Amino acid sequence: MTHAHKVREYCKTQLIDPARARGDTTVSIRAGDIHKALGFKNRLPLICSALGANAFEKLARVQRISLEGPTNGANAVFTFRLK
Predict the structure, then answer these.
(1) Bridge-based pairing state of the strands 62-68 and 26-30
(2) Kind plus residue range of the DSSP H or E element containing 44
(3) Is 81 helix (H, G, I), strand (E, B) or coil?
(4) Contact (Cβ atoms closer than 8 angstroms) between residue 7 and residue 38
C-alpha cells in the first residue's frame, strides 16, 4: 500500500465514514492532524496531495468544497461535502 493510499484509507475509515453514519453533511480534515495520527515525518505535501486528489473524492464519495490555509502545510484544512 502506498503512503498516499494509506492516507486516503485512513481519512475515509476514521473521519468520513463516521461522519456519514452520524448524518453530517460536511467534514473538515486538517493535514497536520493526519500527519500526526499516521506517525509520518516530513510528509505534509504527500498528505495534501492525497486529500486533494480526485482519487480521494471517488474513494470516499465526497466533493471538496474548500481548502483553507497553506496548500502543503500542517494547517491546510480540506472541507468536503458528503455525497
Answers:
(1) unpaired
(2) helix 44-52
(3) strand
(4) yes
0.85 cut: is pTM over it? Answer: yes
Segments forming the whole domain that contains residue 28 = 3-82
Query: For 76, which DSSP code?
Result: -
Strand partners, 77: 30, 68
**74 grid coordinates:** 500542517
pLDDT tens digits, residue range 27-76? 999 999 999 999 999 999 999 999 999 999 999 999 999 999 998 999 99
Question: Strand locations in 1-83, DSSP E?
Answer: 26-30, 62-68, 77-82
